[in-house]
Amino acid sequence: MLEPRARTPGADRSSYARITDDLIALLDAGVVPWRRPWTSRGPCNLASRRPYRGINVLVLACQGRPSPWWLTYRQAVRLGGYIREGERGTQVVFWRVLDPAVVGTAPGPRRTVVLRTYTVFHEEQCVLPAHVVPPEADACPQIRSCDEVINRMADPPHIVPGSDIACYLPVTDTIHIPRRADFADAEAYYATLFHELGHATGHPRRLNRSALVTPAPFGSPDYSHEELVAEMASAFVCGATGIAPATLPASAEYVAGWLQVLRADRRLVVVAAGRAQQAADLILGRSPDPPAGPDHGAVPAPAPSRRHRPLSR
How far apart are CA 313 and CA 308, in angstroms? Predict the structure, then answer.
């Protein structure tokens, strides 16, 4: 039986760097992680049946495993199984919100969050009782209608069809998008619309993201952060609706741009994924603050915002 490797929680900087380095390796190979198609149901924890969240979705989905089920060493043992000899686990991360009294800070509304890591294994890497792994039909819930998601979004922006480009205008809180018939297929249309809805979640009366409303030139760190939030939010919503997020071509220029951004800021992709999960939760009408833990991973609160600026795809 494979014993888990000892790991000290914390080490935020190394965790950020490790995840970013893994995603950079994928980009170097021409794979855009947040556009990579995965199974109709994203990765889920086998013991809790909860879907993984935030950056964990990308980290686990990019492993290319055929089923959605992952679990920790201890969970495998509790289920009556063990990890196969020689198998290497995959680290997932989650945000732990610390009590101000524990970290020695003054009480108040400010939260202290730290990054924690856990090692998980895919069910194929384990020997488990036959009854433990359910058929995929019993996996995490899936929303089947993209239109249902759009129509049920609380406080949505106004969508204006028939534009020459797809963009979100914060000043008017409107999404402008070409007609559905102008796209190569329905999946491309919805992936683009979910991208713009991701931007719209940053409006001051929604999630109030500073990277959306603070004026920033194209290619600047703030601009890149907001674009990455929208890209990942679109991928998360596409996963919830069962359509592949990899519907738009990834040009060499696009990949090179993200390589430069991620190498300059090792925290960007983890923080952006957390805010993208908040955006996806708002679009899907899900609770934005699930309990923190290794089963899914909580997300940090967005920063306050200041002024408006338009964004386009």
Answer: 17
Residue 159 amino acid letter: I
Q: Which helix (H) or strand (E) holds 278?
A: helix 268-284
- The answer to whether the CB of 177 falls within 8 A of the CB of 193 is yes
Summarised one tens digit per residue, pLDDT across range 173-230 is 999 999 999 998 888 899 999 999 999 999 999 999 987 777 677 778 888 889 999 9
**112-122 β-sheet, strand order:** 44-45, 69-72, 112-122, 90-98
Strands 112-122 and 82-83 come out as unpaired
List Cα–Cα distances, 29 to 35, 246, 270, in angstroms: 14, 15, 20
The backbone torsions φ and ψ at residue 192, rounded to the nearest 5 degrees and listed phi first, read -70, -45
Helix, strand, or coil (residue 73): helix
User: Which sequence spans correspond to the domains of the chain?
Assistant: 12-137, 146-312
For residue 125 the two structure tokens come to 């890497």
With a CB cutoff of 8 Å and minimum separation 6, the contacts of 185 are 247
